[in-house]
């Protein structure tokens, strides 16, 4: 989706590629646009109702869709590790969610232990985004 603002059209494929590179056995779909060019790239992570986190316990985010915005390829590893494997929301990327406001456990699930910043180890230089945006120059 690059007709109005190229960020969606540039970041979407880069993010998709990074998910596939890091974790081939998850289902990553591409859509054209979920709203808000200023929030590109957008990622919606659906956690199945019976999904277990590391250690085998049910994910605190089970049955929810977590919507992240302003995602770059450098954030993908943190999304995989923190949101999918550990059931934690990355606060600085979070735009909202599906079935989160209606869930009576939502306050408990989004305490400071669950809403977090992207750990610095996931944010070390990522030149691939700048290279793609500048056409490799």
Report on this structure.
The structure is a single chain. With about 140 residues, the protein is α+β, with helices and mostly antiparallel strands. Helix content is about 25%, strand content about 10%. The protein contains four helices and five strands. It has helices spanning about 5-20, 75-85, 105-110, 125-135; strands spanning about 45, 65-70, 90, 95-100, 115. The strands form two sheets. A three-stranded antiparallel β-sheet has the order 1-2-4, with no helix packed on it. A two-stranded parallel ribbon has the order 3-5. The radius of gyration is 15 Å and the shape is globular. Mean pLDDT is about 75; it is low at about 110-115 and about 125-135.
How would you briefly describe this protein structure?
With 137 residues, the chain is of the alpha+beta class. The protein has helices at 6-22, 76-84, 106-109, 127-133, and strands at 43-46, 65-68, 89-90, 94-98, 115-116.
Distance between the termini: 22 Å
Query: Which strands sit side by side, in order, in the main sheet?
Result: 1-2-4
Total DSSP helices: 4
**Rg, alpha carbons:** 15 Å
Flag low-confidence runs.
110-114, 125-137
Q: Notable features of this structure?
A:
single chain; 137 residues; alpha+beta; three-stranded antiparallel beta sheet; two-stranded parallel sheet; 4 helices; 12% strand; disordered C terminus
Present the secondary structure layout.
Layout: H1 6-22, E1 43-46, E2 65-68, H2 76-84, E3 89-90, E4 94-98, H3 106-109, E5 115-116, H4 127-133
Parallel strand pairs: 3-5
Antiparallel strand pairs: 1-2, 2-4
